[in-house]
TrEMBL record:
Keywords: Antibiotic resistance. This is N-acetyltransferase domain-containing protein. The keyword RNA-binding does not apply. Pfam families: Acetyltransf_8. InterPro entries: Acyl_CoA_acyltransferase, GNAT_dom. SUPFAM superfamilies: Acyl-CoA N-acyltransferases (Nat).
């Protein structure tokens, strides 16, 4: 069973460990010093930043991280993406990682993405869509989005997280389902 909760200060050492793993470090360009991890995740933990950092668990065991936020809360990012695609004012985006390399490639990523997207319709009742830019070189990530039911809607020229990567990003999107909001899984 996949569940999640907000990241707390107690989770910072685990996040640091995950961020240092090669399969994560390749795509998440973070300062992995204890101070850097606290600086990057502390504001969301303390409620000083509007993003949601969610510790994902599989059968109660921490296995990954999802960051979820509204584009509107990050105007520079919204402008960069919005110049290149139709972006509803209430659109939400996510970023994600699986921390345990033994779980990568086992279908967990698409399950996590699908569960968080489904919960977004309840957690953010005004969200019109979930729009996710992913670097074109990160095949595993965009394949996970496709397996989770998102559709590729175009490409965008965006600043990459890793300066070694190209600027081409694929844009994935899913719109709020019509009808009543589904219950949270």
């Amino acid at each position: 069973m996949i569940t999640w909760r907000r990241v707390t200060e107690r989770d910072l050492a685990l996040l640091r460990e995950w961020l240092m793993r090669p399969h994560v470090a390749r795509w998440w360009q973070h300062d992995t010093s204890p101070e850097g991890v606290a600086r990057d995740f502390g504001p969301a933990i303390r409620g000083e930043e509007p993003s949601e950092d969610l510790l994902v668990m599989l059968d109660g065991r921490p296995v990954g991280l999802v960051q979820r936020c509204r584009f509107a809360d990050y105007p520079d990012y919204r402008a960069e993406v919005g110049r290149q695609t139709e972006l509803p004012g209430t659109a939400v985006t996510i970023d994600y990682l699986i921390g345990d390399p033994a779980l990568v490639g086992q279908g967990l990523g698409p399950r996590v993405i699908a569960a968080v997207v489904a919960a977004t319709w309840t957690d953010h009742p005004d969200a019109a869509a979930v729009v996710i830019p992913v670097n074109a070189a990160n095949r595993a990530s965009w394949r996970a989005l496709e397996k989770a039911g998102l559709r590729r809607t175009g490409t965008a020229d965006l600043t990459p997280d890793n300066p070694a990567d190209g600027r081409t990003h694929f844009l994935y999107r899913v719109d709020r389902p019509a009808g009543p909001t589904p219950s949270r899984p």
